[in-house]
Amino acid sequence: MLRFGIVIVAASLAAPALAADFTPPLLPAAKGKVQCYSPDPVKKTCKSTVGYRMTSDGGIESISTTVVSNPPLTIMETIAEVEIRDGKVCGAVNEHDILAANFSAEGRGIELKQAQTMAHQALQASKSLLGRFLCTAFGMDGDVYKAKVAIDGAARPDMDQPVAWIALDDGYKMAPPAQ
After folding, report:
1. Residue 179's pLDDT band (boundaries 50, 70, 90)?
2. Half-sphere exposure for 58 (CA within 13 Å, toward CB)
3. Interacting residues of 11 by C-beta distance below 8 A, sequence separation 6+
4. For strand 33-37 and strand 173-174, is the pairing parallel, antiparallel, or unpaired?
5. Of the residues 70, 86, 115, 170, which has the maximum number of CB atoms within 10 A of its CB?
6. CA–CA dist 64, 51 (Å, integer)
7. Could you give the CA distance from residue 100 to residue 158 in angstroms, rounded to a whole number?
8. Where in the chain are the domains?
9. Per-residue pLDDT tens over the stretch 10-61
């Protein structure tokens, strides 16, 4: 039995949202854009992406895809509930979202047993964040647009990353960050 992961296309499968559905800082999501973390505009790569969709009850889900290993290029996809608080995207890190992650290697689904092993490894790697509340603010840091992370209200500049809003048809792909 295979467990399928979805790469950047995940956000395109989200229900279409109207501009009125999203508020800052997620207005570009209403136009079908996703966030590209650690973008390389020359190589057109992202270390991870986050798309957003509205739920039927008016909530917001984030669809995150992250490179977890290379080679082979292995991607983890998670879906989590988020909310906007004081202009920041916020949500709790929970075990269920990590254990429900989908994985793919070189664009192909991974066997269920291997995916479960990888999910448990991701859970162990995220252990210090479980049950914590993360908020991400977006803004300029000098001439770089960045995602600035706070955990339980405390700034975590070590987790800040450059980010860019990209369209799904901009030609970007997932790749590990340049070393």
Report:
1. low
2. 1
3. 29, 32, 34, 49, 51, 52, 53, 63, 168
4. unpaired
5. 115
6. 7
7. 27
8. 2-82+94-130+164-169
9. 443 444 444 447 888 999 999 999 999 999 999 999 999 999 999 999 999 9
